[in-house]
Every structure is written in structure tokens, then in C-alpha cells.
Amino acid sequence: MVTRFFAREETKALGVYMQSLFQSVGELPSYLVPTYFDQCFKRIYSLCMEHAHKLLGTEEKGDLQKMLALSSLQFVGIAEGGALPAGGFEFSFDENGKRFISYSIAAGEF
Questions:
Q1: Domain locations in the chain?
Q2: Cα–Cα distance between 66 and 64 in angstroms, integer?
Q3: pTM to 2 decimals?
Q4: Which of 30, 83, 98, 105 is spaced 20 to 30 Å from 53 by Cα?
């Protein structure tokens, strides 16, 4: 699961961080793994939220302003060669004009 973050330069640092966290969790006794796995994801979520608020300039704002600012975000995945229906989507190709790239907000692995 962590290896997906190494595919793009922008997410490699997050992949390294997650890999070190989950490696530590894997060394725990099995009855402690779910608790610490959850703690890892909470920490990652908190770091992402802090970063988003920093970029949006809402660190010092109230909860309502933070929620409104976050509602403006969209999480978009890039599907390289994904079989998406034509129409309503913007498609582009890489610089060589060979690799088909489409953008989607659909959940799942590309």
C-alpha cells in the first residue's frame, strides 16, 4: 500500500514517512497492531489537515472558516490509460503524445 506513494515525486516523502511508521507497527505483538495502525493514520490525517490549513491560510481561524475552506478542496486522481467514458472529462497526453492521462475523482486504484 505504501509503495503507491513512491510512484510520484510529490508523494515520495510521505511514502518514506509512512513506510517507517508501518514498519514499526509490524514489529508489535499482533494484539497491538490495530490500535497503533489507527494511531498512524490519525497522525497522517492530522498532518495533512495542518498542511492544508497552512496553504489555505486558515490556521488561526475558527472551525466554521476551516470547514468552509476545506470544502473548496477536491481530491483528484490521475488515471494513466484508464478506460473512462468519453464526454464530460478532460483528457491529455504526455509530452510525447503517447501516454493517455485522464483525471477522475472516483475512488479506487488506478
A1: 1-61, 74-110
A2: 5
A3: 0.58
A4: 105
